[in-house]
Amino acid sequence: METFIPIQQVKKEHVLSNNTSANTIDSSSHLSTLERTFIWWAIKLRIFYFTCITLKHPKKIWSTYKVMLNLRSNVWGGNLKKIYKISGRYYFNQYTPGWPSNAYDTLIKSELRRHASPMTVAEKLSFVFLAITRKCPMRCEHCFEWNNLNQKEAFTKEDLLKVIDLYQKEGVLQFHFSGGEPMVRIKDLLQLIQFASKKSECWVLTSGFNVNDSTAAQLKEAGCKGMVVSIDHYIPELHNLFRGHPDSFEQATTAVKAARKAGLVVSISVCATKQFLDGNHLLPYMNFAKALGVQFVQVLEPRDIGHYEGREVLLEKRHIEKLEGVFTLVNHTPAFKDHPTLLYHGYHQRKVGCFSGSRSVYVDSAGDVHACPFCHTKSYNIISFLKAGTRQLPKKENYCPRFGKIA
Ligand code: SF4
Where are the domains of the chain? Predict the structure, then answer.
């Protein structure tokens, strides 16, 4: 049964008091129109420069450059202009390393080679979701790790360091540390970030548990660049009910404020259920996100795995149309220029395919490797490779079973 609380029963003052405190946060990561225009041209010129030096042949240069621009337009539903400056780097997507950086340049060159010779070039992973713990204080309605939760840890810290090393040898540019709740294992997490951030950009995906000014500053100091905080409703009671924890909303909003104060890029992630969309909650949620001062909002579609297994949670046509409408409205309409960028993977997945599997994999808290957290397509168990002393990972075979892959 889906969680349901009639909105009228929710105490209004609770919502208002939350918005009042959130409104006190400024939006210093926003750029002036002039700087934004300049940066976009600088990035486009850099991509064109890499196209020239990587591909060399004029015909291939122009056709591949156009393919890259078209792909971007398909992913964002148009020419996305939103961009943010945090700690000296520019970000337009939480899954693209900040610019300028070696990681950003490497990603562009890798994409260029892939699109110039889609049939022959060796595929390279760009980022990995790594579930570092099975422990979690939440009991979320949609949890994709449900069957692994709160059992004995499968990974030692040494295992995790080896996993990072193996994937970095494959060229991975971004690690997104998740769980369970990764902040349960803060001491190990800090060491993993210290190690991984020498070569890759590091993000933490959290419910907000154990994130405060002190721990957020420690993450930043260790080399962490961004944080994704799960907030599944702007109404505290509904979020807490979804997360199965009475303090979850308070913890999540505290985490957002602490992460911003520490100078991290901040995204909030929402599971858009049928009920959430039928209640027209996405636009108010975007206003809430703007007031919180985050740079990104990530909308996830519910999938019938983990805690949702056997439930009729998949969105219907009307929900998808609604999501796509808000996605283009928020990202491309002048009235929403100061709202966070809205990431909705379903938009490009249905139009051009999915990046998961070919660009990224999900290592779950038992060590099983899947295309993504929501498509359980186990192709190998990384812990058994570690035990066997393997120094090279097997070739990937983990494509998205729902939407197919992008070249
Ligand atoms: S979804 Fe994340 S926060 Fe929620 S119970 Fe599962 S692991 Fe914990």
Answer: 33-104, 123-387
Residue 351 near residue 74, CB atoms below 8 Å: yes
Residues 373 and 154: their CA atoms lie apart, in Å, by 17
Q: What is this structure's pTM?
A: 0.91
Span 233-280, pLDDT tens digits: 999 999 999 999 999 999 999 999 999 999 999 999 999 999 999 999
CA of 85 to the centre of ligand 1 (A): 30
- Ligand 1 pocket: which residues have CB below 6 Å? 136, 138-140, 143, 145, 179-181, 207
Instruction: Identify the architecture of domain 123-387 in CATH.
Output: Alpha-Beta Barrel (3.20)
Dihedral angle, C-alpha 237, 314, 340, 205, nearest 10 °:
70
Nearest CA to ligand 1 atom 6: 143
Q: List the one residue out of 97, 23, 108, 101 whose CA is nearest residue 68.
A: 108
Q: In whole angstroms, what is the distance from residue 94 CA to residue 341 CA?
A: 10
Cα-to-centroid distance, 124 and ligand 1 (Å):
29
